[in-house]
Amino acid sequence: MKDIIIPWDDRDLGTPPRTGAPVTLTVDGFDVTVPEGTSVMRAAALAGIEVPKLCATDSLEAFGSCRLCVVEIEGRRGTPASCTTPVAPGMIVRTQSDRIRHLRRGVMELYISDHPLDCLTCAANGDCELQDMAGAVGLRDVRYDAAPQVANHFAPRDSSGEANPRWLPKDESNPYFTFDPAKCIVCSRCVRACEEVQGTFALTIAGRGFDSVVAAGEAGDNFLTSDCVSCGACVQACPTATLQENSVIELGVPQRSVITTCAYCGVGCNFKAELNGDQLVRMVPWKHGKANHGHSCVKGRFAYGYAQHQDRILSPMIRDSIDEPWREVGWDEALTFAARRLRGLQETHGRGSIGVITSSRCTNEEAYLVQKLARAVFGNNNTDTCARVCHSPTGYGLGQAFGTSAGTQDFDSVDHADVVMVIGANPTDAHPVFASRMKKRLREGAKLIVIDPRRIDLVKSPHVAAAQHLPLRPGTNVAVVTAMAHVIVTEGLANEAFIRERCDWDEFQHYAEFAADPRHSPEATAALTGVDPEALRAAARLYATGGNAAIYYGLGVTEHSQGSTTVMGIANLAMLTGNIGREGVGVNPLRGQNNVQGSCDMGSFPHELPGYRHVGLPEVRAVFEAAWGVQIDPEPGLRIPNMFDAALAGNFKGLYCQGEDILQSDPDTTHVAAALAAMDCVIVHDLFLNETANYAHVFLPGSTFLEKDGTFTNAERRINRVRKVMAPRNGFEDWEVTQMLANEMGAGWSYTHPAQIMDEIAATTPTFAGVDYDLIDRLGSVQWPCNEANPAGTPTMHVDGFVRGKGRFIVTEYIPTEERTGPRFPLLLTTGRILSQYNVGAQTRRTANTVWHDADLLEIHPHDAETRGINEGDWVKLASRAGATSLRATLTDRVSPGVVYTTFHHPDTQANVITTELSDWATNCPEYKVTAVQVSQSNGPTEWQQDYAARGERSRRIVTAAE
Amino acid sequence: MSDENLIRMANQIAAFFRTQPGGDASAKVAEHLRNFWAPGMRRQLQEIALKDGSGLDAIAVEAASGGLGLPRVTV
Ligand code: SF4
Ligand code: SF4
Ligand code: SF4
Ligand code: FES
Q1: Which residues in A lie closer than 8 A to residue B35 (C-beta atoms)?
Q2: In this structure, is residue A852 part of a structural domain?
């Protein structure tokens, strides 16, 4: 089967769309009807007439500075700029006349007189709007001569050899793009893109008139030292070669493109992968992408180089024991070896002695096949996904309250929010493109509440400030959320009409009585939570009465021993205030990795089949038994932490782990390492020899998202297509590898394209019933549930009623975690991530993104540092009862006294040596966010780190087939 | 799997359901365990429940005594 890409209209219409009553006007004799507020330029473009333009582009509000877009309008004097002139009924517009042509040529002539004429060797040759416009206006000669005495800004020296004071050198500080001021036409598209689209405000136009130049940051800054987050929006907006991707400078302008989806975070941005042949030249966020609307972050746009990295393993490898070096073998030999071992283990230790871990990074089709491998071929339910360690409490908590774990909104919903409450999430780092949307709404006046132990960037950034920041003590989420409910209930702010209509009234009564208890008041809980009661009351009032209020939450909610309880508490708040079931409100879990949502949807959890249906239900099993022709075990299987425990007890012996580095990403590394070492057949299917592979017996090379077909489902339940951009370097797409392993074990599968896997998913799973590749190609993407009732998908959930019927209020008693600070471990460690790195960093560490983050740092409050004699940049030892590691410290008041913070992107730091075995009560999601620790001075890496590095090196030895 | 871990996990579950209105905490704990714990873990928990002084929450002990959907373990 061949992928057919529907040709979408990617033209630049000059100014953004408007919604409004229809207005009809005439452009060059053609009638065109557009919404009120639309610019004349856009109306003309919609009628098929492109008005020349330079400073306008349809991702930005019109600016009206270049005056190339002038038109004549009957009954109006002069020649108005079409980009800034709104349409009016009956307007008669002419886009061409002698007068207009003359004016446009004059404008172009002026621009070109201060622009170098080196088009043939310019990196933007063939992709330059200045060039196009010179052609479009028929510029034939330039009368202004750049004579020595007439200053220009592009020549380093004038013809007498004197240095030109107006010339500025290239800024090559950013690893992915170059700023060459010589080519700048000062259209300010870059400045506006940084403000309007990205919301970072890193760029300004410095100087005035003839002397104006684009500047990053303050005087003396370059792009790297400024606030720039390297999103690339300015590069994309620049009409000239001034801001240009280095890959285009190096490889030339791309000639073909394929639309696909980013494989990093849960935002799920659509991209145009632009290539020459099979050489990827650049990734350009796709303007019709419904999650990203033409924007992206540094990871998706620039950090794809790992696909070509020399560390990538391209041929299968096996070894008898993990002390031996790897042996490169052919696919057949590796698969036979793996299949024999797995079957042998089942014969000796029982059917349940092996299992699988699916990945949130792989496609839906791949995750579906891996769980099918466990259920239909292994004959057990030992399947789990790394979502276990991030959003499993969302699944349980929202499932209990609403009847489905689905996030309730699409991203566009934030445009209608009046109050945004962010709990335990750091969108500007972890969900950057959505954060830009959120910041745009906040700049328009929506109010922000942040509940987080750390002062995340959102609390105070250019033109955005939180109305309330509640810096709670890690581990006290439930107490804070319940205290908010206390305020809402006792101050009479609950939406009784909504509750009576939509929720179970008896359960509400129980809950209201519980929440109203004075022991839950902000004043009573302040000593515990560390949150100022007045601030908490103000936040609760704002949430309840500020209009449309939307909650966005992340792993700071779920990764706790009471993660599921906090999720329920959040659902309670939304129901109490009626903030659910329409645009602008809702409960929105921000999923970390690209396909967390999808891997959960696909039945990766050990207790449920695809579509969140318990494996104990005979009617559900019957559907799959009929489709697969096997008996399905009705009992839940092992979850990831249970697998490790069972391995240490000697009952769990074999694991197929696809695209997931459990050793680095799971808590209590020492425990995980011991569990892996206790297994007899660990199969790692990945791009690189990751940390887990140190304990593996079989390595199956994986393919990148650029090399396969499939779908990812983002945090808004949006199913996006991943399209094969180039052939897999390892020879097979990942679903093919899983199929080969299954068939080696006797499965007899015969899929020839992932579309057929999706068809099987649709046939067995009611919420996916209407999904197929044709539909996604036609619509661009679709949000499940997608079925007969909602053939084009479902942007907002629970509109007329909750999935479970009546919404359920659940009592959320605060139960402190067993992890307590004490004399030995007096500080609380919480963990997180940063923008430029992704998860365990296997991909991003293998790109130039390391210029922004080359090591994990420990954030510590200056007060805690001082009492320990720690200075900025010192090596410190970070110890918990689980283990110790060392890293460098940075002193900041972003964290409160008593709290320290670090990221987990680098294996040599291995923050998870410190985290403990404690987990969420309902789902075993690890408690990453709270660990009691001590910080002390140190000279460098701990003994554990040195051992670990040595072991890593030893177990990565490879004997190639030729030797 | 270590008894200690299972006991801690079961106690956490019991602690949640103890706080819920309605009074049938042990039945809810049992249901939760049946839904989310693999049979091997449930079996081991039953054995733990039979021992005195294991540290297992009384609600979890009661839940386990109902069999957790498995053939009942007897002494
Ligand atoms: S890359 Fe993004 S953040 Fe940096 S200057 Fe350009 S638009 Fe602003
Ligand atoms: S850098 Fe590009 S976008 Fe920015 S002002 Fe110059 S030409 Fe315009
Ligand atoms: S990492 Fe996330 S925000 Fe960045 S481009 Fe990819 S999907 Fe978009
Ligand atoms: S495009 Fe209208 S003024 Fe520049």
Answers
A1: 607, 614, 616, 636
A2: yes
